[in-house]
Amino acid sequence: xxxxxxxxxxxxxxxxxxxxxxxxxxxxxxxxxxxxxxxxxxxxxxxxxxxxxxxxxxxxxxxxxxxxxxxxxxxxxxxxxxxxxxxxxxxxxxxxxxxxxxxxxxx
Length: 107
Prior knowledge:
Elements: E1 10-13, E2 16-19, H1 30-34, E3 37-39, E4 42-45, E5 48-49, H2 52-66, H3 74-88, E6 93-95, E7 98-100
Antiparallel strand pairs: 1-2, 3-7, 4-5, 4-6
């Protein structure tokens, strides 16, 4: 197994597209502190997302169950995910959108 190299990947963090090697998340993000967040695993085959609306509906249901509000509407979120896939040049991949409650004081 080879080591993972994020340098050629693009990620979307807090409204910005950034390089995978430079992306940062605060140690005070509630997703890190308490596991307070949701994620969805999406597959990319031949450069296209597989059943993206099904995955986004599940992400939305999961967020609602925790009282989290998605930061973008479904179409906007899908646009961001497609942009990340395109900028990263992904043809066959696993994409994981993650939504957390965000930065906050511990406790």
